[in-house]
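Subject: for your reference before the review

Hello V.,

The reviewers asked for a structural picture of the protein, and I figured it would be easier to keep everything in one thread rather than splitting it across files. Below is the amino acid sequence we used in the manuscript, unchanged from the supplementary table.
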Amino acid sequence: MDAVRIYGGKSLSGQTRIQGSKNASLPILAATLLIDGICEIENCPDISDVYHMLRLLESLGCQVSREKNHIRVDTGGVAAHDMPSDSVGVMRSSIMLLGALLARMGAVSMEYPGGCVIGKRPIDQHLCALRRMGVEIVEGREEFCARASKLHGAVHELPFVSVGVTENLVLAAVLAEGETVIHPAAREPEIQALCEFLLKAGAEISGVGTDRLVIRGVKKLHPVRFRVPADRIVAGTYLTACLCAGGSVFLEDAPCEQMQSVLACAERMGAGLTVWPDGLFVEGRACNRLEEVLVTEVYPGFPTDLQSLFMAAMALSGQGGQIEETVFENRFRIVPELCKMGADITVEGNRAHVRGGGPLHNTIVEAKELRGGAALVVAALAAEGTGIVRNRHFIDRGYEDITLSLRELGADIELA
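And here is what came back from the structure prediction:
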């Protein structure tokens, strides 16, 4: 079955290692297209989104091999610029291949990308920005074609901060003629990891970690070996598992320096946190009300990917709180499912009101997107009785094996 079964009401104890970052791995894998030769990517998570990205690379002519979390990509045989619709349709991140393929092949044909239904996430800003770099784009109803005889640098004053647009422009600019400026550029750690990979390969990028990136095009990049950093969202997921169920856990390799807004919020909700050189120790459970509204923001603000998980913690704390979603308008799709479990949550526009109440009870609920699915699993850990979370395939897009990791932390959970 495509489901997870959770036997709730058990506090957590144990430790688990945090996997490599999904949101860093995907653009780095796309970036291998810019390099004629063999790149080796270490600590790449074994998740379905990575599988689809590798399948896309293979469809373009790459030779891909994998041993556990070590991936070897040989781009020497790249010859195609059309991508299979079944992988493009299920993965939003396929859009970042646009900039890389234009730089490598000068042409791209693809369907509009899919992924989780958490908001409109239009690609018009991707296309508009690439047009400024000399790309001609013909848009159809279900697909589009892009072509550029030669990419040239440009100044991009973006109307809003976008991780995806920033990634695409960086990938298009590193081999373009002249200088490219991106402002405001996204500052997420995953952007920094992509830039570090490209710098190691010989790119010229300044301003990494700031909201202004300057890329000076180079003639060629060289093959590299690169280790993907740990996943801050996965670490935040298992942090909220302890917030919900209580207990004490150690999250090995948790990238605490990237999680300051999350750690501060967890402490205000009652968690005891100790940062160690090799990870994060978490104890206690959510027992305090957040007096301020939890507002999702671009990095270094509170990440939208953890909003639904903290909503579950608020519902279980008995104290409630308010959440304002400013990034994706459909991030509240989890609310009806939490209410099936007994939560008292109402939504007004882009704000959710979580009221304190009695304990939650387990039942059958359905994941509707990646992080919301993980949040339902986390909520079920602390709820009474036995619960089922359906549509596990959404969760598998971002977690290597959520049931195994949670069992390592003492949860009573299994595939169903």
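For the response letter, the relevant points are probably these. The CA atoms of residues 21 and 173 lie 24 Å apart. DSSP finds 14 helices and 23 strands in the chain.

Happy to draft the paragraph if you're swamped.

O.
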